[in-house]
Specification:
Blueprint: H1 2-35, E1 38-43, E2 48-53, E3 57-63, E4 71-77, E5 80-84, H2 90-102, E6 106-111, E7 131-134, H3 136-144, H4 146-158, E8 171-172, E9 176-180, E10 183-189, E11 194-198, E12 203-205, H5 220-235, E13 240-243, E14 246-250, H6 251-270, H7 274-284, H8 293-302
Parallel strand pairs: 5-6, 6-7, 7-8, 12-13
Antiparallel strand pairs: 1-2, 2-3, 3-4, 4-5, 9-10, 10-11, 11-12, 13-14
């Protein structure tokens, strides 16, 4: 019996060591992906593109400079590519399509995880057959959640400048790991869409960050989930964070945002009215850009979706 117990301890130790070695190897791979990156900027007629070259993978961050300050991400590997989000304003379409074609970027799929408007962008010979990836969570949010008001409110706010065509899904996906354009990604459902982990380049895409901007938080459930998910990404060792309306950020920026959200919880608890909440947030963060503070206040204190205020 003593020999059997000793044997089991040895097996357990070997197994644990192998798991730790794998974990350490993954962390080293992530760290290497982060440090071995070169960056360049390309100016277009309206927006600009920041290109992050990791060797086997290139990430193109297209700053649309549109009226909602949207960001579109291109993940490129071995001649294939996937888009995260879509431009939605007509005057971005030509320059971004030209950028893709000029750089021989063959798009295989798009993941409109938070911004599913702009469906006419892919109505070209080169893009019309790409796969459009949705989760049921995104469809539900835009049909019956706060997104339904945004779908109606955005065209009213921006008129014929915006393409209000909703993307039509061709592939429904679940939470978990999938591979698109040769790149493995991890899908996590969130309050208003889905986040995308990209381990190969040690990066996570979420909806709204900005370490010096007030965030849009659409109620207590949204706040709790954001804190949970953001802490989870930090614990996994991710050090680059992308979002829909801000430039790429780092680990310190994400830690700053988590602390901000946790403090927001405390400020909500002691603020009796929307006006008091706004005043307390501005006092706590006097140097922050107002961003979506008023939309968050309305969400917490009137429980109303904010439509084009998004």
């Amino acid at each position: 019996m003593k020999n059997i117990i000793t044997y089991l301890f040895i097996v357990a130790a070997i197994t644990l060591g192998a798991c730790n070695s794998k974990t350490n190897a993954e962390k080293k791979k992530q760290a290497k992906a982060q440090t071995e990156v070169t960056k360049s900027t390309i100016q277009l007629s309206k927006g600009n593109v920041e290109v992050f070259d990791y060797g086997t993978v290139k990430m193109h961050a297209y700053f649309t400079k549109d009226m909602m300050n949207d960001l579109v991400i291109v993940l490129e590997k071995n001649g294939k590519a996937a888009l995260i989000e879509s431009p939605a304003f007509w005057d971005n379409y030509d320059e971004f399509r030209n950028y893709l074609s000029t750089n021989n970027i063959i798009v295989e799929a798009i993941l409109p995880s938070y911004h599913p408007l702009g469906g006419n962008f892919i109505e070209t010979e080169a893009l019309k057959d790409i796969d459009v990836y949705f989760t049921q969570n995104v469809l539900d949010y835009w049909e019956t959640g706060f997104g339904s008001v945004m779908k109606a409110g955005i065209p009213k706010a921006f008129g014929d400048k915006v393409d209000a065509q909703f993307y039509i899904p061709t592939k429904m996906i679940e939470e978990g790991e999938i591979e698109i354009a040769g790149i493995k990604i991890q899908i996590t459902n969130t309050y208003d869409g889905y986040d995308i982990e990209i381990p190969e380049i040690n990066t996570v895409y979420v909806h709204i960050l900005g370490h010096d901007v007030h965030s849009e938080i659409l109620g207590h459930e949204h706040l709790d989930l954001s804190i949970k998910h953001f802490k989870g990404y930090l614990s996994k060792g991710y050090t680059r964070f992308l979002s829909s309306h801000y430039g790429p950020e780092n680990k310190v920026d994400m830690e700053t945002k988590v602390a901000y959200l946790e403090n927001m919880e405390k400020i909500i608890a002691k603020s009796k009215t929307s006006d008091e909440f706004v005043k307390n947030m501005k006092t706590a963060y006097p140097d922050y850009k107002e961003g979506y503070l008023m939309a968050s206040a309305r969400s917490f204190y009137s429980n109303q979706a904010q439509g084009h205020q998004h």
